[in-house]
Structure formats: C-alpha cells, structure tokens
Amino acid sequence: MTEPAPESAVALVGMAGRFPGAADVEQLRRNLAAGVPGLRELTDAELAAAGVDPATPGHVRVGGPVAGGVETFDAAAFGLSPREAETLEPHHRLLLECSWEALERAGYRPTDPGLPVGLFAGCAFPDYLTRNLAGLAEEPGGKPLLSAGVERDSLTSLVSYKLGLRGPAITVQTYCSTSLVAVHLACQSLLTYECDLALAGGAALPLPQTAGHLAEEGSILSPDGRVRALDADANGTVMGSGAAVVALKRLEDALADGDVVHAVLLGSAVNNDGRDRAGYPAPGVAGQAAVVDTALAVAGVKPETVGYVECHAVGTPLGDSIELAALNRVFGPGRAEPCVLSSVKPSIGHLDRASGVTSLIRAALNLRDGVLPGTAGFRTPNPALGDRFTVLPADAPWPADARPRRAGVSSFGVGGTNAHVVLEEPPVRAPRPSRGPWLLTFSAGDAAALDEVTSRLRAHLAAHPALDLGDVSFTLQVSRGHFALRRAVVVQDHADALAALADPGRWLDGETRRRDPRFRLVAGTGSDWASTASAAHRLLSGAEVPAPAATREGALSALSAGLTRLGVRLDESATDTLVVDGGSCVLSVVARLWLAGSTVDWAALHRGEGRRVELPPYPFQRKRFWVDPVALARPDAYVPSWRPDPQPVAGLERRLRAAGPWLVFAADPVGEALASRITLAGGEVTTVRPGAGFAFLDTGDFVVGPGDLPLLRQSLVVVPRTVVHGFALGGSPGDVEAAAELWPGMVTLTSGAVGVLGPDLTTPSHAALTVLTSRHVDIGPAAAVDQVLAAVLNAETPLAVRGDQAWRPHHEPCALAGHAEAEVHHNVPDLDGRRGILLVRPDAAGRVLAAEARVARLAGRGRWTTVVSTSDPGPEVIAAVAAAEHLTEVVLSGLPPVRPVRAAEAVGSSSAVRARPSLGTPFVEPEPGLEREVADRWAEALGFEEIGADDNFFELGGRSAGAVRIAAHWQLPATAVVELPTVRLLAARIAELAS
C-alpha cells in the first residue's frame, strides 16, 4: 500500500463470529477457501426434533444452523444465575460471546477494557420468547428477566453492562442491513470521539434451527435449497443462522497503540430508497446506486480503483438484478480489468441481521490475504452483469500493484435502508527483533478452562512460528488476566515456549483472592545476586536508570525500583512478604506478584512499545441452559383428500409472456397444445420432443433421445425461465430425473398419477413422478389448456386439473379409535376382497405402492388402507387403522404438525445452592463478625454457597427488589445496596451507623 489513508480512516482490529458450519472466523475462512459449505441437508432426526415433517408439500430440507447450537452457554463467565441463563434469549447469548471474543482478538480485556467502548448491534425477532418463554411474564420475577435478557431493546445495553463498556450502546434494526448499518454508526461514533473503540455486529438465530423452509410462491426462499447469487439461474435464497461482531478503532490510534489491523475502512454511507421502488419490501435501483456513490465519495476514492465488491446478492432474480443495475450506474466504463463481484451467501446462506457484518469480515480477510474471491456454485452470469464486472467460480490471487487493494461491501434491508462500506488493505506491519525472556500470563474461570487456554495457546504458537513472543506476551498480559484463577510461564524463545506450555512443572499457578495487596521484599538464599541485579535493571528499569551494584542490596534495590515503576505496591511495613533468592528469575517474581493480585502496568514493562497480535479467544465452558417448549398435542393421523382450487385465468396471456422463455417437453397432443397456447399468447417457447437421437430442427425446436439432455442444455440459445416436462403424458417419462437435476425448478406433468375423483387414478406407476420435483401438475382427460397453464404458473403445487377445474391436496386431522384385525403388507398382493393394511414410507416408492393399493381397492382386489409413516407403527395403531375400514389412506408422519394455541408454561428456576460464579473480582474471604453476617445473608438470598467481601451484589445476579429487602433487614435506606454494592462496603456502613 503506497497511498496514505485519510484522517477519517477506521481500522478493523478484531473479528468474531459463529456461522453455519464454522465456529469462528478462522474456520469460516478455511471453509470458504476449501469450498466447504455451511448450508447442508438436514437429517430426519433434526427435522423430527424441530417438529417438521419433511414430506410436507413444498418443504425444503436444507438449512444453515449455527455451529455449536444455541442451547448451551457459559453462564459463569458472564456472572449469570442459572435462571437468568436459561431465560436469556439466544441473540443476547451469542452477541455476548462474540463481543467478548472480538475484544480479545483485538488484544483488549473483554471486561472493563480500559477505554470507552461503544456497541452498535441488532438482531432478528426473538422466537425464543414466543416458542419457549410464553408464560414467563406471568411468573414471579419474570418481567425483569424479559426486560433485561429477551427484549431486543436490551440487546446492546445488557452486553455493555456485563462487559463494562462505557461508550454508546445502541440497538439497530433495519432488517437485513442491520449489522452493516451498525458498522456505519460505529465509525461515526469513533470519528466524533464518543468512544475510542467500537463494536458493531448483528445476530439472526431463528428457531427451530433445523426446520428447513417452505418454498411458497412470491417468497424469496429457494425451492431447491440452493443459493445461486449473481447467476442467471438464481431462484431464491436459504436463510442461515449466525452472529458476528467486529472491533473498530480510529486508524491513527490503532497504529499508535500497536493494534492488529486487518483492513481499513475508508468511508461508509447509509440511505433509504424512499418511495422509488415497486413496494415496501422491494429494493430500489436509485437508492442502492446513491449509497454506493456516496460511500465512495466519503472515502475519497474513484470506482475504478475498487477491485472487488462483496455484494448483498441473496440469490433472488429480482434482487440480484437490481443490485447489478445499481452497480452499473456507479462503476462506469473504461476499466482496464473488470471488477470482481462475489457473495458469501451461496456458501452459508443469508444471515439476515448478521449478513452485512459477515460480508464485511469476508471482504477484510480477502484484502488482508490478497484473494479475489469466487462465488460458490456460480455457472452462468446474470444477464444484468454487463462487461464492467465479472464473477469468479473459484478464488484467485489478487496481484499487488502500485495502488492499494480496495473493496466495497453492500447490504440492503427490507424496507429500503441501504448501507455500503469502502475498504482498503491494511498497512504492512514492519517486523522487529525481540529479546527474551518473556512472561506469558493468562487466566480462566475454572481449572478445565485454564488447561484449555494453555493448550490452545501452544497449538497457536506451533501453527504460527513467526509470531514475535514479545508481542504475544504483551497481548496476553493486557487482555487475558481478568479471572482469579491464573497461570504464568516464563519462556526464552519460541521452542522453549512450546516446551514450557506442555510441561506442568514450568507453570506458575495461583488463585487471586485479594485486590492489589501491599508486599515487602525479603532477601532469601542464593548467592548469584549479580545476575538478579542485571536482569532487574534490563527488564524492569527505565533506560535512564544507572546500573545497580552487583550485590544483594543492589539487586533488591533494582527490583524494588523496577516493580514500583510497574505499579506494584511495595511497603516496608507490609505484613505480606515476597522472598527473593539470589539468582531468581526476575519475571518469575513479577509473575508471583501478579498471581497474588498485584496490579501490574504491563505497558511499562514493555517500555511503551508493546504490540498486539491476534491470539485464540477464551474457551467458554458451555452448559445447557434452555427452556424446552411445551409439547403440543397432535392428531393421531391425517386423511388425504382433494379440494377444488380453481386457478385464475384472467391476464393469463400477459403472465405467460412474463414467465418466458419457456422450455416445454411435449410427447402428446396435450403437450403440443400447451406449447401452441404459449406461442399464441406471444410467449417465447422452445419445444422438445422425444426421438431416437439429438436433433435441432429448423423451427428452433429440438428432438432428444436417451442421455441427450446435457447437450440440449448446452444448445439452448437462451436460458429458460420456466421448464415444463410433459413426456409422461405420452406414456414414457423419459430422462425425467436427469431433467430434474438440470432444471431443479421445472414443473413435472403427469396424467392419472393421482386419484382426485377415484377412477381417475389410471397410471399408478407414474405416482413416483409426483414427488420427483418440487412442482407437479397432474392432468386428467379433457383438461382445459388454460387451466393447466394457470396451474403450471402457480408455484404452490401439487395441483391436479380435471376438466376446467383445478384441485389441491388437503390433509384433514383424524382421531383413530377402535380395534380390528387386518393383514399387514409392504407390497400389494391380490387379497381377493380381504382387509389389508399397506405400510409405506413418504417417498417416491411409497407413492407408487399407495397408488397401486388404491387401484386394487377400486377393483375389488382387497379392502386396502395405506398407512404412510416414516417408521413402522405399533400394533395398537395398526389395529385402530384396521377398524377405520372406510379410509383409503392414513398419514401418520410426513405432514406439518397442527399447532394449537398453547397455554403459558412455567419457566422453572432452581432453588438449589450453587457455587459462586467466576467473576472478574477475586474472591476475598469476609472478615469474621459483621462482614461474615452480611455475606451469609447475601448468599442465602442469592442461592450461593459463599460470597466474597468484594463481590458486587448485582454482578452476582441480584435484583433491585432483593437489594431493598437486604437494606430493610438492617434498617438502611432502600438505595443502600445500590450505593454500597459489596459486602465490605455495606458492612462498613452498618458498623458506622451502629457506632
């Protein structure tokens, strides 16, 4: 990078997140580079746990659940009681964790970070409230829990309270653009000096996590579970789950403070489309173009210097095309190389309120690593792409030149709030030599977490041998020491660090139980005072201090002066002593004081030259804190039937033209009639007929034989918008499965594959085709062509057309009762009028068997009832079905559950005595007498085994009502505990009043 950044530049100094298939930012980077998708097919067990039936018409069993789930949480790390933790809304949970991690990855303490920190974030609707906590407001103490831990208004203020952040705490809600708008607001807050460090992000965690979605006409959701962003075949998106936060700082300050800089934000802008769009949820070209243009102007850069744009592009045909049109307005012609466009959504889905900041993280990684990103699954450019842009199918190197690499990031929200950010690659950090020894310090909430911190640090150093240990030690010292359980390791170099971190004999462990005590240095044994004096002078003293005498007195004097310079409180009258032997490791002395609770000025230890590096974050010790939703009553069974659903034919010709270009596979007069009607309406249609081999006809139509469909796809002049496969109408379906792979959104036509009226089920062997694709229309004799085409245009299928009437399947709840006997089969033999139960699965083979059983019943070859179920039902269910002889088919599983309105459920709380949570405050034993009496009353009120003298009542989970009761016990003012929130302070006031 050769151009200086403007004074308004903002540095991205920390990144954190949880994404589909990736538990952190580094895993997301690896997944994207390796082509590992976060979206995946959901298992039967996951769908069952979510209460979803995969056989529901239109259901798409693809999702992007967040890695690690949402049911577990480290309540102790944040000082939450079990009741608070189990009612804490998932968005609040993950934003707490990601904010903590973003601060740590930036090299700052995650609690009370030492400078004003602002927080700007938003989240999606709290499904946990309506699904799991519907009765909480009516319970004692429930409303405060809802207010602090569930409502979206408390999202940022709760995080700021728990982490001790003193800058602005603002919750942002602009739908999909929420988190990038939050980034813009964070930058403005930094540039107006409201804060010196800002966190910005968002979270979207719909419940249940593994439900998939229903593809409905008019929705933005993909009917086949694939996101084809920027592609001509784009047909919808898939919603993913995730949370992400970035840490931002003024670039000038970040460089001066030795921060890690991943990318530089040169400028940003936010606006709204106003009324210049088709409707409230629709995007607008003018507004999107304006926000990009404004951000570039704020950044002071020209569009031709931007080499890559991380697009909003969610994979909808309209939305992607409008975004491309807007970019074409801003990025003029004449570029030497086209600008690369990309979108992360084909890999991890649309993360809604977290999508903008996730795109920002991806763009920052690509700038930092010099990568022009590919877009997963990209095949055919969207026609609106033009020649100014290109989309890569895979990552490519981003060559460096005289200009810095620059990128743009867009995020557009429902309702028209648009955001765009302009980024630049980070400045190069110059390497510098360092000289050991080094003191590595870290802490944790419990022994297991402390060991995991140790192993994570060792693995990170092993994977990054070029890391400077001076930078590592400084980062650890200023950001990882807030817990009372602590560990220190003195190391000489990189190899020694790997050995020491694997050797418990080298570890200095302790649990801080006092806050900044006073110590007196005492000389111990040993004779090598010269080395102690020399090390104390080199490591602890300032450059202006003369070298001490190589004696015991000189060594103790140098140690005392150096430790005082580091802020350690030394006092010759102190009762606590620290024995120093001749030849002692000076950094071990510092470590022992730190373990005992001394405050150390780590910046002074590094003589103001400390630099931060990115290190592994704290390993949260998560446990399950979750309120399960009340199990909902479900009908015993469902009975399928068909109901009239006439399709509107008004304006059909206009709709037929709009749905083109058409590709119609015709093998009989009905198929030919459909193609002719489309042509008559003025629609563009290509007809494909079956034959012995591939042929292109003078009319522009095609003939295909077995295996010719890939060649057909390559030979098409235009990409069809609507594909209708009707070869089955001619008797043989042909390569219909291959066609479904090539055109996943196609409509499959059958004739007589379903029984609407009974005898019209004439082709049971074709029943499998009804579930082959997500869209299906069955055509009966004398079906009206216009009604068939209207049904084809309806995305909510299956439908059946009989004459001039369309029909839609319906499933009526049915309670099974009674007991009878019947033969049970998994195929359809001739029962010669006997009673029979056919067990089938809700799949293609099951549909064929069910159709055959229906035909056999009509023909008198058995009194069949088909039972559709994902597993074999028990004997009592079989007996009840056998008693319902009038039923032709019963569905036990394979449909969406009926969800009646439920009563408010209780959210239980545990009254068991709990261990004191891990707090940032070290545990200090209360003094006998009044302090012990106050501590015992607090412990009883809060449900803890013990409480320390310096513990804060509210950090322990105390509420204002409890504080008033405690104050009343000692006849104190109602505000006493608020003003004096520790045992020691309150006890001192009680003693003062008593005297």
The DSSP helix count reads 31
Q: Beta-strand percentage? A: 15-25%
Q: Could you give the order of strands across the largest sheet?
A: 7-6-8-10-1-11-18-17-12-13-15
Compute the average pLDDT.
Answer: 91
Are there runs of 5+ residues with pLDDT below 50, and where? 896-911
- CA distance, first residue to last residue: 70 Å
Oligomeric state as shown: single chain
Tell me the radius of gyration. 34 Å
Structural class: alpha/beta
Summarize the structure.
With 995 residues, the protein is of the alpha/beta class.
Describe the SSE topology.
Blueprint: E1 10-18, H1 25-34, E2 40-41, H2 44-49, E3 59-60, E4 62-63, E5 72-73, H3 82-87, H4 90-106, E6 117-123, H5 127-131, H6 142-149, H7 155-163, E7 169-171, H8 178-191, E8 197-204, E9 213-214, E10 242-250, H9 251-256, E11 263-272, H10 285-299, E12 308-310, H11 317-330, E13 339-342, H12 345-348, H13 355-369, E14 371-372, E15 389-391, E16 396-397, E17 406-412, E18 417-424, E19 438-444, H14 447-463, H15 469-479, E20 485-491, H16 494-501, E21 508-511, E22 520-523, H17 529-540, H18 552-565, E23 577-580, H19 586-595, H20 602-605, E24 623-624, E25 637-644, H21 652-658, E26 662-665, H22 669-680, E27 685-690, E28 695-696, E29 702-704, H23 709-715, E30 722-725, H24 736-742, E31 747-750, E32 775-779, H25 785-793, E33 799-802, E34 805-814, E35 823-825, E36 835-840, H26 844-858, E37 863-868, H27 875-883, E38 889-891, H28 930-942, H29 960-969, H30 976-979, H31 983-994
Parallel strand pairs: 6-7, 6-8, 12-13, 12-17, 13-15, 22-23, 26-27, 26-30, 27-29, 30-31, 31-32, 32-33, 35-36, 36-37, 37-38
Antiparallel strand pairs: 1-10, 1-11, 2-4, 3-9, 5-24, 8-10, 11-18, 14-16, 17-18, 19-20, 20-21, 25-34, 28-29, 33-34
